[in-house]
């Protein structure tokens, strides 16, 4: 079977692309390796997606999925390992089987960046976490640290103040990248302290069982100190999940390069949308817009080449 379009990834960009492609009556399938929803499904609260003043990431993604399935979306669970260009068709090599399509939209998103400091890997799942909604409740009545100064770190720190005993926010600069409204909200929390202009240098524990403390260093004076905490939540940005794509051009950080007008990648007929594609603003709203654009470009490509 040769599809008109295969979408790889079921986050906001992939589901948006699916809705547009199904309404264009393309013969499509969406391939997802784990669960539909993407990284945003882990967000405790989304307040800037127009039309929905406040809802959780999972609630928003359920609405996207219901919308796409209502139009007849078929989802296959498989992990794509490579894409080859066979002229008229692209072949997608999956772990379970191979698939063929005239066009492809890559919406594989991004995963959390690691600090790469001693203790991080050893204590992941035993005190080190990259998801506040998943793991926050395990630290009820405990002191924890949050690392980062972007939207994720400040939003998740704010959420964690409502669950845990205290939060120390550790950020390497004095200024935050996060939206001003998110910064303002932290001022209302009584159980948060800040260690600005400090970088984490190690996460320390009791053998390899549980986290006991985090050691940090002043970026200017190089003075070090150790803060007792039971959990460390790391939100220092994301990296695109594109290492499996060997035949498609990427930038030095692994983000897929595209033509800005059509979102076509270096492989003709293959498009990219969402967080795997470099841009200034990584949001549900921008991912959705790109999904729509990529699906429309794919539709034109199918019509032009059939
Ligand atoms: P960002 O890249 O925006 O921020 C990463 C933060 O981590 C920065 O403050 C950065 O510091 C710090 N950092 C990076 N590397 C290190 C390191 N090695 N050691 C210590 N600190 C480090 O990432 P986010 O995950 O916050 O956000 C990713 C994207 O998702 C953004 O576009 C964001 O806007 C979006 N987002 C939007 C949300 C929303 O509700 N609107 C919610 C969550 C994310 P420095 O500032 O010094 O570089």
The shape, in one word, is elongated
Largest sheet: 7 strands, mixed
Examine the coordinates and then state which fold CATH places here, giving the name of the CATH topology of the largest domain.
Answer: FAD/NAD(P)-binding domain
CATH architecture of the largest domain: 3-Layer(bba) Sandwich
Number of domains: 2
- CATH class type of the largest domain: Alpha Beta
SSE string: EHEHEEEEEEHEHEHEEEEEEEH
Number of helices: 6
As a percent range, the share of helical residues equals: 10-25%
Small molecules (ligands, ions, cofactors) in the structure = NADPH dihydro-nicotinamide-adenine-dinucleotide phosphate
User: Total number of β-strand segments?
Assistant: 17
Low-confidence stretches: none
Multimerization status: single chain
Computed CA radius of gyration, to the nearest angstrom: 21 Å
Please state the average pLDDT score.
95
CATH level-four homologous superfamily name of the largest domain: FAD/NAD(P)-binding domain
Q: Termini distance? A: 16 Å
| Beta fraction | 25-35%
Description:
There is one protein chain. The chain is α/β, with parallel strands linked by helices. It has two domains: 2-111 and 238-305, FAD/NAD(P)-binding domain (3-Layer(bba) Sandwich), CATH 3.50.50.60; 114-234, FAD/NAD(P)-binding domain (3-Layer(bba) Sandwich), CATH 3.50.50.60. The protein is built from six helices and 17 strands. It has helices at residues 12-23, 57-70, 132-135, 151-161, 180-186, 284-305; strands at residues 2-8, 28-32, 75-77, 80-86, 89-94, 98-106, 110-112, 128-129, 143-147, 166-171, 192-196, 198-206, 210-218, 224-228, 231-234, 238-240, 270-272. Helix 1 (12-23) runs parallel beside helix 6 (284-305). The two termini are 16 Å apart. The relative contact order is 0.19. The protein binds NADPH dihydro-nicotinamide-adenine-dinucleotide phosphate. Residues 46, 48, 115, 147-153, 155, 172-173, 177, 199, 235-238, 281-283 line the site of NADPH dihydro-nicotinamide-adenine-dinucleotide phosphate.
């Amino acid at each position: 079977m040769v599809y008109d379009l295969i979408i790889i990834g079921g986050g906001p960009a992939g589901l948006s692309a699916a809705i547009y492609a199904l309404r264009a009556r393309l013969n499509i399938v969406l391939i997802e390796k784990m669960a539909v929803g993407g990284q945003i499904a882990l967000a405790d609260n989304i307040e800037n997606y127009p039309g929905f003043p406040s809802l959780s990431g999972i609630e928003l993604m359920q609405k996207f999925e219901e919308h796409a399935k209502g139009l007849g979306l078929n989802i296959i669970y498989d992990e794509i390992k490579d894409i080859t260009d066979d002229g008229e068709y692209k072949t997608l090599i999956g772990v379970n089987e191979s698939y063929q399509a005239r066009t492809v939209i890559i919406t594989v998103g991004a995963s959390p960046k690691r600090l790469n400091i001693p203790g991080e890997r050893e204590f992941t799942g035993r005190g080190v976490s990259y998801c506040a909604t998943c793991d926050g409740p395990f630290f009820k009545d405990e002191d924890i640290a949050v690392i980062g100064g972007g939207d994720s770190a400040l939003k998740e720190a704010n959420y964690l103040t409502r669950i845990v005993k205290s939060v120390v926010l550790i950020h390497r600069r004095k200024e935050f990248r996060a939206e001003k409204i998110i910064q303002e909200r932290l001022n209302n929390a009584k159980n948060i302290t800040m260690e600005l202009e400090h970088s984490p240098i190690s996460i320390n524990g009791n053998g390899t069982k549980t986290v006991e403390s985090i050691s940090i260093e002043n970026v200017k004076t190089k003075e070090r100190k150790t803060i007792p905490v039971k959990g460390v939540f790391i939100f220092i940005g994301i990296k695109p999940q594109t290492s499996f794509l060997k035949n498609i051009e990427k930038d030095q950080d692994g983000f897929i390069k595209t033509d800005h007008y059509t979102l076509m990648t270096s492989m003709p007929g293959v498009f990219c949308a969402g967080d795997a594609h470099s841009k200034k603003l990584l949001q549900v709203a921008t991912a959705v817009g790109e999904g729509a654009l990529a699906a429309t470009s794919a539709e034109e490509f199918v019509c032009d080449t059939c």
